[in-house]
Specification:
alpha+beta, 22% strand, two-stranded antiparallel ribbon, 2 helices
């Protein structure tokens, strides 16, 4: 379940971007997840929610958007949608 590691990385990166001494509250973190990445968005959201407690992102929600896969055929150079690694032109 690599979603735990990804959630921790998202929290760590977001915390590093918050200006030191900031009085604001992080309310959301947006990420784009590639369709071919094998990341389970529900599992990632669950992990993020569990790991955010006690961090600067404690009140933040994770807004994950799935990005469709696509490829370009090496023979005809057609760009086509790709929902799995076995998709061909």
């Amino acid at each position: 379940m690599h979603e735990l590691t990804i959630a921790r990385s998202i929290i760590s990166i977001a915390e590093k971007t918050i200006p030191q001494g900031s009085k604001g509250v992080v309310t959301a973190v947006s990420v784009h997840i590639g369709e071919l990445s094998t990341v389970d968005i529900q599992a990632l959201e669950f992990a993020f929610n569990a790991m955010r407690e006690g961090t600067l992102l404690e009140k933040a929600v994770l807004q994950a958007e799935k990005i469709p896969g696509e490829a370009e055929c090496q023979d005809c150079h057609t760009v086509f949608p790709m929902s799995n690694w076995a998709t061909s032109c």
